[in-house]
Structure to design on (1224 residues):
């Protein structure tokens, strides 16, 4: 692929043989070439930057001491490593060398190349989840390495039906993307859709799973994420078992799962660790928090600008007195304060953790009180905006939190235009947009619309595990039954 | 680039749109919460007085101030637009809590004003119509030593009294009785008592004209006949023992029963507490029964008097006509108006005393 | 002219029980705000019996509709088979005009409410531009999106009708007495103004092929009709006990006036919230009618669905300016009510009879 790319640009020499490739690669200073044995019969090629040189010295060299080797196949047989292979395919050689393999050739036969893995592991260790932290339950998160991530999932699903399909995406980065699902539970149509869409990606770099998430989304202009994005292996495992499909991208600590629905974004995985009445209560609180967060400042504008009738007489005095000295109309007041909060949030996210915290507190308290004292905003509004900002953080998935953060601005504009009627407009546009969204071709607003009552057991509410006997309908899994698996488990005698 | 152009055009037009409808920013409007109407006989015009509370300025002070605006016109719309000339901000009537009618205007007829008020869509229907003893303008333009603003004071005054002895009357009820057949409206009367505002009685209307006034002492008799009550009180003068008893926490319910086309019985069942029961010797059943009977008779007397007065004046605040209408199929308005003064209306009061003894 | 696309994309089809929501949504539009005044004018406070009568009649009509429509066909096919291609298309064309004008009327009359209650100076231009953008966005999402929106809006009148219960608390039950104090004929006459509230049954003829296993939808349609009746009855009774007969004739939208007395600790005047919530219901109703007319023209012409919807939206947008005041809206409502009445109680049975005759003829031909 790379060669073809170069060829097109006409800057590179044509590469016809292994020697050409090597000559081309040697242009880069970190490409090394070592010779061993009698008459330097064995040559080893590698990128110093990709290779664990220690590994070569300790593992490889001893084998090259006694030398009566005639072809590379023999070396392969004596080397105790997995994934070694002998090939003459230039494309494969190129790809492997670039992903941390050593190429070994013999002087006599430079067409057959032995490839041996010696990757230099720079990845960090498996760590605590930072975005989706939970007080109860497992505290482990994905890291940047694909194989570790796959390992974290496979460790949890001890079933041969758990399958992984590996794809290479990105013209330059050639990122490995793994698709994981359980054969016999996941719907074949969903699998085909995902594989097809990933294969169709035409782009030079895939740095993170979110690149894939955006490129394979059904509607890429929507502010709503259409694939679930999580750093928790337990969440992914559970999704795979429900019949969803996981997309793991090398170099990304976030795993995508799909198809997904809107309510899933409001479900924290911690909900499953609590008893169901608590979990249900928290979910409902979260959904109300989000509604509050989106609606409260637009409502403030609508009521203060147009509908003073709605304010109770006892509250009227408080609101009017708090606004008496403020020179701006409510819309400007709200925009100033909302933008301040967005600023604080943005700055807090970019600054190093410790400074970020300080800025958050200092900004929140100092700027807020100062703004009220200076008569730029009213203290009633300050409370509302702060609460709205707080409420938008209750979403367990960071990605939807961002959406909610920005969602209120169109609401604010419409509320300024036509008051509560404008708000009704905004709600209608939002609902229409959500109704039109799909995730992998499946309706995004499920289980509310299309109404699938059985799926409500794990939507607004989370009912006890005893009634969760069936998998959600919207994944269209082949094996709908959770307890008596028909396809994926061999019968081990009768269970009581 | 094209997309950017498109979106910038949309955004600009949105900004233009913001000036599309007239805004009523809450602190930039003059919220009229009380409206008083008087009649100026010399020019044959209504005098309207609007009171809006001054928020913010006197937040820390002990008393709350109001601004009163007065203007003269032959219609409500005219008055509102006249007030607009005097008020610093746009005048809004959406939070009206009470409408006050001066005594004079009530006697002349409130139909013009009522229809004018009904035409304003932003006015609620739970506000209180009131009659002012004397002129409404005088009551409204005075500054009182109150902890609340005047509109809120009057609103809470009426609201809390409706829970007790005052019969319920809102703008909707007024409309209902004004437009309906076989019924007439009434309103509480308030008066300016120098430092505070007081409820002093009830004013009864014949269609839209004030024809009869009673004092506070007839509140309970009327309320008992008129509607069910939950927490009323009644002051009973026990002549025999020369004592004044107060019956509290009264629960009553009333029922109209047509014996024949010309005879109506209004049955009222009343339950109440007497606090100092023991000292009156009420621990003996026969004493208690005697007292119950006496109170019942006294009330019956009061009620009959009221009813007689109503029939004399040909007014129907008890909605007896409406009750007849829903009982007799061949009811018609004309015939009813002729027969109403002659109908035999009998109040039947059943009084029951419950005792409370904190100390024995 | 040939009809387009007999086969409907499976992803646009909905399950039969959604007929409950669709039919209820189409019936519950602007009518619920005014019908109490209209029926009380004819039959006084016995008009609620008229509602029951209308319910009975419309249920029969629904059954007839199910008898007329074979699986996978709509009104255009039926018109073709009964009247032939050319005349059938002409009738379908008229039917499309009816649907479009209903969609327009529902919206325009509610703009009037908004103008009276919220903004006296609301410029219709910008507002209706937004309205039609929203409706286009909905309709271009396909039938499923439209139904989804109706499903969403379904819950609003259901919740709002609870709020109206407060009228019974403040009302005078004796207003309803004595029952049957008007002539039978008056009650029968009240069916005509009441029928406007049941319009939407004729739309089944348009969306029938979009329902999976259409024959199973009958029970849902009948229950939707029942639910509508229940809400109408509740609204009518609450209005009747709350206002007296003289008063109710003076109010343009009696149901909205009931909201004037509802107040919550944080919302003192519920009507302002109620009207904006009911706005969503209005859009849903208007939208499904709009979809119906687009679908109608799409089937009898060769233009794309998108093209027709944009064209009709522009027509609707322009007509917004033609209706200038409340009197014109009242006139329009009278015309629509008459046409709707004829369509429901005359045209649909007529179609059924024609169909019976036709099938009788073909059958007798076959036997010979």
């Amino acid at each position: 692929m790379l060669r073809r790319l170069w060829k097109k640009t006409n800057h590179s020499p044509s590469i016809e043989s292994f020697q050409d490739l090597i000559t081309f690669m040697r242009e880069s200073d970190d490409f090394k070439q070592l010779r061993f044995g009698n008459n330097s019969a064995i040559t080893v090629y590698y990128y110093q930057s990709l290779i664990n040189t220690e590994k070569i010295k300790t593992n490889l060299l001893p084998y090259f001491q006694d030398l009566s080797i005639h072809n590379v196949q023999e070396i392969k047989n004596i080397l105790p490593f997995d994934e070694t292979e002998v090939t003459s395919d230039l494309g494969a050689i190129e790809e492997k060398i670039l992903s941390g393999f050593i190429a070994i050739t013999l002087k006599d036969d430079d067409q057959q190349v032995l490839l041996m893995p010696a990757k230099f592991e720079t990845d960090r260790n498996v760590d605590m989840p930072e975005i989706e932290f939970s007080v109860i339950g497992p505290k482990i998160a994905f890291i940047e390495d694909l194989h570790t991530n796959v390992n974290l999932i496979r460790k949890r699903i001890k079933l041969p039906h758990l399958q992984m399909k590996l794809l290479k995406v990105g013209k330059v980065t050639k990122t490995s993307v793994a698709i994981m699902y359980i054969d016999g539970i996941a719907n074949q149509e969903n699998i085909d859709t995902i594989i097809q869409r990933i294969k169709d990606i035409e782009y030079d770099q895939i740095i993170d799973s979110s690149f894939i998430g955006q490129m394979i989304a059904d509607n890429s202009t929507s502010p709503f994420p259409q694939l679930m994005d999580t750093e928790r292996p337990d969440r992914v495992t559970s999704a795979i078992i429900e019949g969803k499909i996981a997309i793991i991208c090398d170099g990304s600590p976030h795993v995508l799962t799909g198809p997904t629905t809107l309510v899933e974004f409001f479900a924290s995985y911690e909900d499953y660790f609590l008893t169901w009445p608590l979990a249900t209560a928290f979910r409902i609180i979260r959904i109300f928090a989000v509604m509050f967060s989106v609606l409260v400042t637009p409502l403030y504008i609508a009521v203060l600008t147009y509908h003073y009738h709605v304010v109770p007489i006892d509250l009227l005095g408080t609101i009017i007195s708090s606004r008496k000295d403020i020179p701006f109309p409510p819309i400007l007041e709200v925009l100033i304060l909302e933008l301040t909060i967005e600023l604080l949030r943005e700055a807090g996210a970019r600054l190093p953790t410790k400074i970020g915290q300080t800025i958050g507190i200092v900004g929140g308290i100092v700027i807020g009180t100062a703004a009220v004292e200076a008569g730029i905003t009213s203290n009633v509004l300050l409370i509302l905006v702060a609460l709205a900002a707080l409420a938008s953080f209750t979403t367990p998935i960071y990605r939807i939190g961002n959406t909610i953060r920005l969602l209120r601005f169109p609401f604010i504009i419409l509320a300024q235009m036509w008051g509560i009627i404008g708000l009704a407009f905004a709600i209608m546009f939002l609902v229409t947009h959500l109704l039109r969204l799909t995730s992998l071709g499946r309706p995004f607003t499920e289980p509310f619309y299309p109404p699938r009552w059985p799926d409500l057991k794990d939507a607004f509410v989370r009912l006890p595990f005893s009634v969760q006997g069936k998998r959600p309908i919207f994944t269209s899994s082949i094996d709908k039954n959770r307890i008596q698996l028909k396809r994926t488990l061999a019968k081990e005698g009768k269970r009581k | 680039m094209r997309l950017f152009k498109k979106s910038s055009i949309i955004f600009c037009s949105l900004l233009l749109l913001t000036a599309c409808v007239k805004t009523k920013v809450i602190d930039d409007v003059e919220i009229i919460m009380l409206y008083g109407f008087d009649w100026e006989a010399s020019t044959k015009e209504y005098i309207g007085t609007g009171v809006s509370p001054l928020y913010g300025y006197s937040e820390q002070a002990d008393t709350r101030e109001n601004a009163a605006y007065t203007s003269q016109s032959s219609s409500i719309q005219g008055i509102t637009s006249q007030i607009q000339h005097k008020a610093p901000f746009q005048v809004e009537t959406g939070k009206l809590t009470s409408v006050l009618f001066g005594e004079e205007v009530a006697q002349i007829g409130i139909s013009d004003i009522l229809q004018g008020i009904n035409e304003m869509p932003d006015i609620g229907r739970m506000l209180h119509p009131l009659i002012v003893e004397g002129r409404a303008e005088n009551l409204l333009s005075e500054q009182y030593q109150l902890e609340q603003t005047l509109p809120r004071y009057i609103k809470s005054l009426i609201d809390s009294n409706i829970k007790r002895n005052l019969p319920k009357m809102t703008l909707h009820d007024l409309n209902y009785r004004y437009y309906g057949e076989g019924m007439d409206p009434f309103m509480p009367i308030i008066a300016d008592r120098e430092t505070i505002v007081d409820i002093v009685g009830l004013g009864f209307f014949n269609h839209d004209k004030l024809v009869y006034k009673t004092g506070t002492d007839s509140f309970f008799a009327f309320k008992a006949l008129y509607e069910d009550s939950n927490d009323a009180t009644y002051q009973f003068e026990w002549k025999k023992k020369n004592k004044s008893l107060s019956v509290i926490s009264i629960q009553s319910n009333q029922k109209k029963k047509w014996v024949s086309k010309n005879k109506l019985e209004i049955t009222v069942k009343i339950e109440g507490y007497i606090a100092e029961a023991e000292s009156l010797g009420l621990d003996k059943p026969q004493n208690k029964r005697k007292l119950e009977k006496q109170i019942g008779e006294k009330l019956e007397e009061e009620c009959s008097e009221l009813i007689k007065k109503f029939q004399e004046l040909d007014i129907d605040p008890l909605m007896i006509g409406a009750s007849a209408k829903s009982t007799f199929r061949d009811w018609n308005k004309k015939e009813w108006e002729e027969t109403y003064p002659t109908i035999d209306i009998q109040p039947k009061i059943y009084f029951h005393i419950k005792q409370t003894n904190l100390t024995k | 002219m040939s009809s387009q696309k007999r086969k409907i994309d499976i992803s646009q089809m909905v399950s039969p029980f959604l007929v409950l929501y669709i039919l209820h949504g189409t019936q519950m539009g602007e009518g619920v705000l005014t019908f109490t005044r209209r029926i009380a004018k004819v039959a006084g406070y016995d008009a609620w019996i008229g509602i029951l009568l209308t319910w009975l009649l419309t249920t029969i009509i629904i059954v007839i509709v199910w008898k007329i429509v074979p699986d996978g066909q709509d009104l255009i096919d039926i018109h073709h088979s009964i009247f032939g291609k050319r005349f059938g298309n002409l009738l379908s064309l008229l039917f499309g005009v009816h649907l479009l004008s209903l969609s327009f009327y529902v919206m325009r009359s509610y703009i009037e409410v908004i103008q009276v209650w919220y903004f006296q100076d609301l410029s219709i231009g910008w507002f209706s531009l937004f309205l039609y953008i929203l409706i286009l966005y909905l309709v271009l999402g396909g039938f499923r999106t439209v139904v989804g929106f109706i499903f969403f809006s379904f819950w609003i009148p259901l919740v709002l009708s609870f709020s109206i219960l407060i009228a019974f608390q403040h009302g005078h039950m004796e207003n309803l007495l004595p029952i049957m104090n008007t002539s039978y004929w008056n009650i029968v006459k009240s069916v005509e103004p009441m029928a406007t509230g049941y319009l939407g049954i004729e739309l089944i003829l348009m969306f029938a092929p979009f329902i999976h296993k259409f024959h199973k939808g009958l029970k849902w349609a009948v229950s939707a009709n029942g639910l509508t009746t229940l809400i109408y009855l509740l609204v009518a009774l609450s209005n009747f006990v709350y206002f007296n007969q003289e008063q109710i004739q003076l109010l343009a939208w009696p149901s909205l006036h009931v909201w004037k007395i509802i107040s919550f600790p944080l919302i003192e005047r519920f009507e302002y919230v109620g009207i904006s919530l009911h706005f969503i219901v209005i859009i849903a109703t208007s939208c499904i009618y709009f979809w119906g007319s687009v679908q109608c023209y799409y089937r009898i012409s060769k233009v794309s669905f998108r093209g027709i919807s944009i064209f009709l939206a522009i027509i609707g947008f322009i007509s917004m300016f033609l209706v200038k005041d409340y009197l014109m809206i009242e006139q329009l409502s009278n015309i629509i009510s008459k046409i709707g009445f004829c369509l429901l109680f005359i045209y649909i049975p007529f179609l059924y009879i024609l169909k019976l005759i036709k099938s009788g003829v073909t059958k007798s031909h076959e036997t010979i």
